[in-house]
Amino acid sequence: MFATTRRPWWIAFVCCYINFLHLGTARLCSLLYLAALTRYNVGRSQASFPFILCYTVRNFASPFIGYLGTKFQLHLVLMWGSVLASIGVGGCYFAEDIYTVIVLWGVVFAIGFGMATVLIPEVLSQNFDEYLTNANGLAFSGECIAGFVLPPLLQASLNTYGTSGTFLLLSGMILHGIPAALLLNPKYYRKNIQVSPKSIKPLAERQSSSNEVYNGTIKSDKLSLSLETKIPSKVSMPNKNVIQIAKRGILHINEQSFENTFGIRQNILSDSSIEIKENLVSSSFETEESPISHSYPKANKKKGKHAALVRKETSSTQLLKEQNCSTDYGTLDTEVTREQTPSFNMEEKVLENAASPPSPKLLPPKKVSTFEPFRVFLDPTFLLIQVTQSLILYNCTMFLTIIVDFARDDGLSSRQEIAVLVYLSIADTLGRLGLGWVTDLGFISTASFSAVCCFIMSIAFGGLIFVKEFKMISFLTFVFGLSEGGFLIVCPGVISDHIEEDKKPMALAARFFLYALLSLTQSPLIGYIRGKLGSYDWMLVLLAITCLLSLVTSLLTPVAAKCRDKRKANKDVEERSNLIERAEIEVLDIV
């Protein structure tokens, strides 16, 4: 068994460093776009295309990356993502035309960049049971930190080594993500706890003493069968390994509450898998009779129990083997211990005209389809989450693109334009680092908090339409950045709270898939509204409306999750009822 020794906050710092390298590099696209414009002597549309294509390919590839996360260890996917991203950026050193940069940066780097960053929320969700929102805020603050640190360094590199040399330096910087990804290997932060056989024995004695045992005969209105097997107390014979058992099996059938041949009630068959652990131990034997029982707990806290009389050999034991068997009926919280004696024979005498009750049939585990992780796209709850988060990401990237030009249209100086950008980055960082406590401490649910953030962003966009002064523009931009940071860090928490456990890795990876489609409309929309209409006011109106739409879908997310869970519960009840009916028919046929 594995146990985390402490809350792994250092894992969040490692993820922050990985985001610093990859998201920080991708965020340099505005400076690299200007450098490519002069280096390859092309137009603005061609020079900007590889950097726009990068985000589109990254989000298109997110479902595939999520699938890799279900098949391989997460730290390996992040490691190979760093390798691929470094190859893509380093290859641009040899590029002599913009088309090579489009392939290397826009495709190769984009896929590696996605592999190294898309699965980080899943890494955090596996290591944080609480304070998950703060962990995400810390991890993704690396992008904001890179926004302060890397631009001046990049400008100095462009002046010293040129565009091609800068690509090579960025490639070397991204390679530092490989050791960081390897640090996320679970063996470095999880401790394997060895359990000795001596510690198992008192636990087993305590368990057996706490279980209730009933050795009487149960009378039924319909049927009561009793089976008895008699075994000599001590028989010795070389080269034989036989288990001595003296057991009584009781079969009880009732119309109101059905118990199968081992006394398991109808309500034990609800979970998705049965796990039975068999511990084989060896010992020299001294036989003594002791009663044992097994109880099978359920969600509704009812228990079905069966009793048997077993000859138990007591001596020094040695653990030999542990087997795990699984099936699709339900989870049986029991541990069956079988003791194996060196040499003895078994002799059985069965009462005449007594039918042996059949043992439960354990079905082989279902084979998981290759396309099973992609079934999350059929979940209405995930579709609502995807619409909410993709629309807000679309608004954020659109606002980052137009904010400088918008400030210039309002008559702000170049110095004031830079100040507005700085305020936006500071607010984003504060939102990511400081607002996670609101949901982690339980003051508000993640879905409600995201709805509040959407409403605040809508107010900020609407206010920017009517203000023209530097102070008010800076204030509303700061408010937008604060709510943007809070929204982005709570996004993984919304998925963790409303998506089923087996679908979370794919959901976390593919949550921005819709943005990949929407991003293709950004450049044409900017060109039409600014070029044809002559102002960004209608763009701000559009952004405010999409924020309100995201507010509605965010509030509908918990409702959709409850409806899905209710449908699934009804389906499980129906399947259990059908299973019980088939079992009753089989027992009646045997009788």
UniProtKB/TrEMBL annotation:
- Read off the Pfam families from this record: MFS_1
Q: Per the record's keyword annotation, is Cytoplasm included, yes or no?
A: no
Gene designation per UniProt: AVEN_32664_1
| A molecular function GO annotation | monocarboxylic acid transmembrane transporter activity
Membrane-crossing residues?
9-35, 76-96, 102-124, 166-184, 382-406, 418-435, 447-467, 473-495, 507-526, 538-561
What is the organism field in this record? Trichonephila clavata (Joro spider)
What is this protein called in UniProt?
Answer: Uncharacterized protein
Identify the keywords attached in UniProt to this record, alphabetized. Answer: Membrane, Transmembrane, Transmembrane helix
Lineage at the top is: Eukaryota, Metazoa, Ecdysozoa, Arthropoda, Chelicerata
Source species, domain of life? Eukaryota
